[in-house]
Structure formats: structure tokens, C-alpha cells
Design a protein that fits this description.
Number of strands: 6
Helix content: 55-70%
Largest sheet: 4 strands, antiparallel
Strand content: 5-15%
Distance between the termini: 36 Å
Strand order of the largest sheet: 3-4-6-5
Radius of gyration: 41 Å
Oligomer: single chain
Structural class: alpha+beta
């Protein structure tokens, strides 16, 4: 188990890590080429060939023997081995630790066992290069055991479930993030589907408008012809004038004229409505919908990406670094002790308390020597505000990615005293 953890954990020497990553890349490339050029007729542990005939494998006799052994045992799923080696080499090349190495190794082993078994219980039987079954010997054995104990339907369910669990353990795969991943990687497909839906909606709207127009025309044709009315408002006014008695006084005529005005004012629009209609009829003027004060709701933070891996703090390494700082300062007669360690996302601040009689300028003059001792590009030394200690800021070997969702979900942002609080990130102490 210790060897497994060591294989998944790069060292502090970046050049050594790059060398190991390069060797893993080369091994993965050789293994991939050997499997891709596998030929059943090449000499191997299972096949005898004439000694004068060179192997067809691109990696020669070694590639022919290794590829035959792996394909005979794991089938076509043997191609997963160079892929896993390449991913591990990328981790070493970037000097990044593998989170949960035991779970990753267990998931990879289970995947190499049950993925061939899933191929073995499929209704069709395929052969690699028309010679070797694609499931291999291991897949056939596990598949037959699943069929014996669970029958066909149960074997499908069990093997698919175990393969899903293996993917969860060996990768960062999750069904929750797969939808977001698909929408971002295949945005063109979702955009095409949305355009198709919009086209269908517009077509249905046009069809409904045509049907409504046909119904209106049919209703107008079926309606009776309008009755002939004498044309002229003047004739009606003359008849009304004749109907008025000559004995009506001027006061009565005034009453009749004033009696018609309330009907007009009652049907008229109020002043705000008139102003709004005037703005609407003005060229280039568009009325925006009014939003009630306090009615807007912020979108949920679940739309933002969440970190799949939690940043773990190696306390043992931090204490070792603090010991190195103390010893290096003591070499230059700058005695003191580390009182507190503040690990942050980018740098770690070590609070150094010098002993009585040690000047602050002597501590700051050790920045270059501490860079050599800590294998750091640069070290910042400054006084801690409100304390009698000196802050020594050392860059972390692996910087932490600060996610916006983590910041907006923090207590400091969700319940601030001011309504103008902005989410900017984290400080050097991780707050």
C-alpha cells in the first residue's frame, strides 16, 4: 500500500517529476502502438512462427509478446492500460498529487475486470482481428460466473453497476456534471435543437393565424347584408332641429349642450394613460415592463461549477517547512520560533517571533537565503499588523483553484453588513 501511494504521489523535485512523467508517457505510447498493431500471426507465448520471419508488430518481438498476452487476457479493454498510464504521467509531469490513490487504483482494477465481462455477456460475439475474442479470457470467466449466478438480465445489471462504480472511483465522473459537460462541449447541437423548436413554434403560430383569418372571412360571408341607412348626419341634425320646440329658451338649449359634455369626459382616458399612450406612439419609443421593487430573485448558486476535489492540508509538511525556516534563520544568528501557520490558497504565511534583541531588518535580509532553503521562487517578509511577529509568506507547491461558487456561498458574503459587498476571492490566509 505504501508503494502504491508513492507511485501516485510526485516528489518535491519538479525536474524528477517531469522525468518520471516523460517515462510514463513513453511507456504508454509504446504499449498503445503495440496493442494497435497486434497481429495473431506474430511469434508470442501462444503462437509459434518461423524464425526467419520478422514480426508485424510496430514495436517488434517485445511488442508482439506483450500485446498478445494482454489481449488474450483482457481483450480489447487492454487499450485502457496505456490510457491510464498516460493520465498518471500527466499528473507526474505537472507535479500534482492524485487524490485518494487507493480508491483510484481499486476503481481502475475493477474496471479492467468487469468491462471485459460486460462485453462477454453481450448477445453478439466479436473477435479482434478475427482471431481473439474481444472480451479476453478474464472477461469470459467473469461473464460466465455472472450468467451462472444472476442469469442474463441480472448479469447485465450487476456488470453495468460495477462498471459505473469503478468509473466513480477511478475518475471525476458524475451524472450531475455530465449534463453541464454535454451542454458546454456540444453547445452547437443544443443550439440547433433550440432553433428547430423555435421554427416549429413559428410555423404553428402562422398556421393558427391563417385558420383564424379563414374563419373571419367565412363569418363575414355568412353574416346578413347591412341595412340601408340614410346617409348624412346633417339629415339627422335637421330632423333633431325640427323636433325642438320653438318655445325652448336659451337656458334650456344651454342645458342640452352642457348635458352632452360629461359623456365625452367619462369615456376619455385619464391623464397618466394619455401620457403613456403618447410615449407608446412616439417613434423609436419602447415601453419596458416594470419590475416591482424587491421582486427580483438572484439565480441559484447551483448554476456555478463546484470543485470536485477538496484541497487537503498536509500538516506534517507544514511543520517540516516551519522547522526548516527556524533552522535556517538560526544559522544566521536570527533566533526565534514559529508561533502560527496560516495556509492559504496560493501562499502559506509562517508567523515568526524573533527573540529579544533581534532587529527586524536582520529578518528581512534573509529572504534570498530562505528562498534557497525552501526551494521557492520568491519569499515575502513583512510585519504582521497588530502582532509582535513577522510574516514569512512562502508560495505553495500546488496552488489552489478558487471557485466563484465557494466564495458566494461563504458566510461572509451571504450575510454581510453592507448591501454593496462584492465577491472578489480569498486573501493570502484563505479567508
Amino acid at each position: 500500500m505504501k508503494f502504491l501511494s508513492r507511485a501516485f504521489t510526485p516528489t518535491r523535485n519538479r525536474r524528477l517529476n517531469e522525468l518520471v512523467g516523460f517515462l510514463l508517457f513513453a511507456s504508454a505510447a509504446l504499449l498503445f502502438l503495440a496493442l494497435a498493431s497486434y497481429s495473431p500471426g506474430d511469434p508470442s507465448l501462444n503462437t509459434a512462427a518461423s524464425s526467419g520471419q520478422p514480426p508485424n508488430n510496430w514495436i517488434g518481438l517485445f511488442g508482439a509478446m506483450v500485446s498478445d498476452l494482454m489481449i488474450q487476457s483482457m481483450g480489447i479493454c487492454a487499450i485502457l492500460v496505456p490510457i491510464m498510464l498516460g493520465l498518471l504521467g500527466a499528473r507526474w509531469f505537472k507535479s500534482r498529487d492524485v487524490a485518494s490513490p487507493g480508491a483510484k487504483a481499486l476503481g481502475a482494477a475493477v474496471l479492467l475486470i468487469f468491462a471485459p465481462a460486460l462485453l462477454a455477456i453481450l448477445p453478439w460475439h466479436l473477435r479482434w482481428r478475427h482471431a481473439v475474442p474481444v472480451e479476453g479470457l478474464l472477461g469470459r470467466i467473469v461473464g460466465d460466473a455472472l450468467l451462472h449466478y444472476f442469469n442474463l438480465v441480472g448479469a447485465y445489471i450487476v456488470s453495468a453497476t460495477v462498471v459505473g462504480v469503478a468509473l466513480y472511483l477511478s475518475t471525476a465522473f458524475s451524472f450531475a456534471s455530465s449534463r453541464v459537460w454535454a451542454q458546454t462541449r456540444f453547445a452547437f447541437a443544443f443550439a440547433g435543437w433550440q432553433r428547430f423548436e423555435d421554427w416549429k413554434a413559428a410555423r404553428a403560430k402562422k398556421r393558427a393565424e391563417k385558420e383564424l383569418q379563414k374563419r373571419r372571412i367565412a363569418a363575414e360571408k355568412a353574416a346578413p347584408p347591412p341595412r340601408q341607412v340614410r346617409n348624412a348626419p346633417a339629415e339627422a341634425m335637421q330632423e333633431e332641429a325640427r323636433s325642438v320646440q320653438p318655445s325652448r329658451t336659451g337656458i334650456e338649449r344651454t342645458f342640452v349642450e352642457e348635458d352632452a359634455s360629461p359623456a365625452i369626459s367619462a369615456s376619455a382616458e385619464p391623464e397618466p394613460a394619455i401620457a403613456e399612450r403618447a410615449d407608446r406612439d412616439r417613434p423609436g419609443k419602447t415601453l419596458m415592463p416594470k419590475i416591482a421593487a424587491g421582486g427580483y430573485k438572484l439565480p441559484p448558486t447551483s448554476l456555478l461549477h463546484r470543485s470536485d476535489e477538496q484541497q487537503t492540508i498536509n500538516e506534517h509538511e507544514l511543520h517540516e517547512q516551519a522547522q526548516v525556516l527556524t533552522e535556517k534563520c538560526a544559522e544566521f544568528d536570527v533566533l526565534g520560533s514559529i508561533t502560527q501557520i496560516n495556509p492559504g490558497p496560493v501562499v502559506t504565511t509562517y508567523e515568526f517571533k524573533p527573540e529579544a534583541g533581534v532587529k527586524y531588518s536582520r529578518v528581512t535580509s534573509l529572504s534570498d537565503d530562505l528562498c534557497l532553503a525552501m526551494r521557492a521562487e520568491s519569499i515575502l517578509i513583512e510585519r504582521m499588523a497588530g502582532k509582535s511577529t513577522v510574516g514569512i509568506q512562502v508560495p505553495n507547491h500546488e496552488r489552489e483553484t478558487i471557485w466563484l461558487r465557494e466564495v458566494v456561498e461563504s458566510q461572509e458574503f451571504t450575510s454581510p453588513k453592507s448591501k454593496l459587498t462584492l465577491a472578489m476571492g480569498k486573501d493570502i490566509n484563505g479567508r
